[in-house]
């Protein structure tokens, strides 16, 4: 329970975030009746906006449903259609990526730390069929990283480990 400034007490349920993280659903009391509330989220994805709507009366549990997996560090929810091989893994200097693309186009290679911060990014041209890309020696500490390859209609991610 939380106490709001005007001494109203609200009992909040477990929140359910929208697939795009722009809104949240939760149960609340409205004049003693259970109700589902939909509220917008600010850019920090934690604090709510003043824009909210009561959706369903006499309801106590709110859940968004979405199909598929969710990558918490992804910018887009893309299906994985790339067979991506990254070697050597673990690595101590450079990495090599091998993959087959269905069609020619642009791609982006990203390396993220465990907090999702982007440490390296590179745009490149890929060709239909087999592709091999050598990443330079990156000034990274020992640890686990996520290497992501994003193309127009497909993406793939692999965990890589840096050793000395």
How would the blueprint of this fold be written?
Elements: E1 2-3, E2 9-10, E3 16-17, E4 23-30, E5 33-41, E6 48-57, E7 84-87, E8 95-101, E9 105-112, E10 118-126, E11 129-135, E12 143-151, E13 155-162
Antiparallel strand pairs: 1-2, 3-4, 4-5, 5-6, 7-8, 8-11, 9-10, 9-12, 12-13
Structural features, described:
The chain has strands at residues 2-3, 9-10, 16-17, 23-30, 33-41, 48-57, 84-87, 95-101, 105-112, 118-126, 129-135, 143-151, 155-162. It contains no helices and 13 strands. Helix content is 0%, strand content 52%. β9 and β10 (118-126) form a beta hairpin. The protein has a four-stranded antiparallel β-sheet with strand order 3-4-5-6, with no helix packed on it. The protein has a four-stranded antiparallel β-sheet with strand order 10-9-12-13, with no helix packed on it. Strands 7-8-11 form a three-stranded antiparallel β-sheet, with no helix packed on it. It has 164 residues and is mainly β. Mean pLDDT is 76; it is low at 1-12 and 73-79.
What would the principal axes of the Cα set say about the shape? elongated
Distance between the termini: 50 Å
Supply Rg: 22 Å
Number of strands: 13
Strand order of the largest sheet: 3-4-5-6
Contiguous runs where pLDDT drops below 50 for at least 5 residues: 1-12, 73-79
Strand content: over 45%
Compute the number of helices: 0
């Amino acid at each position: 329970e939380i106490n709001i400034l005007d001494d109203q007490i609200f009992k909040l349920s477990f929140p359910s975030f929208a697939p795009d993280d722009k809104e949240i659903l939760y149960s609340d009391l409205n004049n003693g009746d259970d109700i589902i509330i939909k509220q917008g989220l600010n850019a920090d994805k934690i604090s709510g906006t003043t824009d909210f709507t009561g959706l369903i009366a006499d309801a106590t549990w709110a859940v968004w449903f979405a199909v598929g997996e969710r990558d918490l560090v992804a910018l887009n929810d893309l299906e994985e259609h790339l067979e991506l091989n990254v070697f050597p893994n673990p690595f101590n200097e450079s990495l090599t990526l091998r993959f087959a693309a269905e069609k020619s186009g642009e791609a982006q290679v990203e390396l993220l730390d465990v907090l999702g911060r982007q440490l390296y990014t590179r745009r490149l041209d890929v060709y239909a069929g087999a592709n091999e890309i050598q990443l330079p020696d990156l000034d990274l500490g020992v640890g686990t990283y996520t290497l992501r390859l994003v193309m127009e209609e497909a993406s793939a991610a692999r965990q890589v480990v840096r050793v000395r």
